[in-house]
Amino acid sequence: MTENTAPKSFIHEIVENDLASGKYGGRVHTRFPPEPNGYLHIGHAKSVCLNFGLAQQYGGKTNLRFDDTNPTKEEQEYIDAIKEDVRWLGFEWDAELYASDYFDQLYDWAVVLINKGLAYVDDLSPDEIREYRGSLTQPGKNSPWRERSAAENLDLFERMKAGEFDEGSRVLRAKIDMASPIINLRDPVLYRILKASHPRTGDKWCIYPTYDWAHGQSDSIEGITHSICTLEFVNHRPLYEWCLKSLDIYAPQQIEFARLDLSHTVMSKRKLLRLVNEGHVSGWDDPRMPTLSGLRRRGVRPEALRAFAETIGVAKTNSTIDYALFEHTLRADLEPIAPRAMAVLRPLKVVIENLAADQTEWFEVDYYRHDETKEETRRVPLTREIYIEQDDFMAEPLPKYFRLAPGQEVRLMHACLITCTGFETDADGNVTEVRCTYDPATLGGAAPDGRKVKGTIHWVSASAGAQAAVRLYSPLLRTENDDPDAPDTDDFIAGLNPDSFETLTAVVEPALLQAAAGARFQFVRNGYFYADPVESKPGQPVFNRIVGLKDSWAKQQPK
RNA sequence: UGGGGCGUGGUGCAAUGGUAGCACAGCGGCCUUUGGAGCCGUUUAUCUUGGUUCGAAUCCAGGCGCCCCUGCCA
Length: 559
What we know:
This protein is of the alpha/beta class. Helix content is about 25%, strand content about 20%. Among the domains are: about 10-255, HUPs (Rossmann fold), CATH 3.40.50; about 340-465, CATH 2.40.240.10. It has helices at about 10-20, 40-55, 75-90, 105-115, 125-135, 150-160, 210-220, 235-245, 270-275, 290-300, 300-310, 325-335, 490-495, 550-555, and strands at about 30, 60-65, 95-100, 120, 170-175, 190-195, 205-210, 225-230, 255, 340, 345, 345-350, 360-365, 375-380, 385-390, 410, 415-425, 430-440, 455, 460, 465-475, 500-510, 520-525, 525-530, 540-550. The strands form six sheets. A seven-stranded mixed beta sheet has the order 10-23-24-25-21-22-11. A seven-stranded mixed beta sheet has the order 19-16-17-18-12-15-20, with no helix packed on it. Helix 7 (about 210-220) packs across helix 8 (about 235-245). The longest helix has 16 residues, at about 40-55. The radius of gyration is 31 Å and the shape is elongated. It binds one RNA strand through helix 5, strand 6, helix 7, helix 12 and strand 19.
């Protein structure tokens, strides 16, 4: 699935160099380390593809490791969803592991640190710790508890573990340098008291390691070679290395890359959670969500996501990917594989005056006109009354409008040429019905006399077609960007696109009623659609629009 | 002078001392039984100043800009 033509990233180069130099004995071992406190989104997909992709390309392994060090935020529901999403994306891990698997070892290592005089129990309150830390420009100052003896620290740490102290009353800190310009090195907290039950370890622990104390050692235990993470962890690398060096254990290397930012959508877990909780979307799998479950529900294929990850590349520059590139990737993925069919989203009735009411013309139409290797067809009936798109008729056509208009001739795709002879309107002047005649010599759609028709429109028989619910989805945000770190004030909610979801009752050709749940089609001239796997019923599919087709006519119209 | 990361067309990604290329977007054209399939062409870029060099996006120095770091979150 991976294009070998894709340019290699700086990370690939690092891996290749390490392979060449024999740095890890020719091994490549990565890990994907999600915190189970939310659903995976397309940004995680980039990381999943990178980590698993690297292992695949260089014959290595990848662990799925849940970073479950904070029981106050993590839930089993998320663990299950994450596993499902990674598998759906197309990857299988070599081992399913948890940072919590290492809680005993991590505790023992903390004791080692204490014995080396490199960690101490601090009685300062959270507020005091913050004060003592100093600021970006001011050095911090030592805690009065910094010089406790190893014996006293050991005793206190053990009692922390035993549950003798309240949350927030004491922490275990590394003893590094309160004046370091790297704030993470100003005696970072290694353990805090959290009297919370853990999804996996239950009530065994009431002290939990912080990310900084758990991550590098977990990597070390698993023999990870390249520990890939996002840019905001660059500042943590000195601490990552300090821990491993202080313990004198195997040290992987941490490598950072820029996380994905996509325009017109929200990417922070906090905001996604808020959208769900406040009902702005129907759930984590709402097709508008950038979550993998949302994209899956919308009909996006994992192949498209993998191709997208390949396309956007990996670098250290913060950047925002244009939503249009994502949509392009979706179309490129579906274009070759999607069978074509006709569905009229916003129906307008057309009466073909010279076709008898009891007359039906049947056409055998290719599903894959774009692909000569596939020959499946279905039968499409033409009757006196049909539906076309409202947009495909104009009572007073604009210049260069090639579709139906009084006196104008168009092709009904796959069927015949029709000429508009008139139309009817309601009291408000809305067109309610269009009248046409067809040319019997053009059955099949070609004109024997060689006459050219500029417009070809799709259509569905009114009597033989069927109604089907069709839902259109557009980007969540009206604005291009959402600052991923801005507070989720009402502004973020106010910026939501009010038209991101629209349900229509479309008229679809008879064959589409047989669409299996999960089937994908291109509705000609409209876009790619997916028979919703949850709401579709036998004989009554519900379609989600995965992505629209580009529309050069709409584009050239002044707004 | 807190520390760190990063600056290439509108948006992204390449080029690793030797003609700045690719994708998306845009624009123009061809073609068309998807105006929305397909094809072709094309505008636009090395943050800045200086230095090294026959030659700099690439190396060096200064400046500027953006991002990250003051959780007992990850």
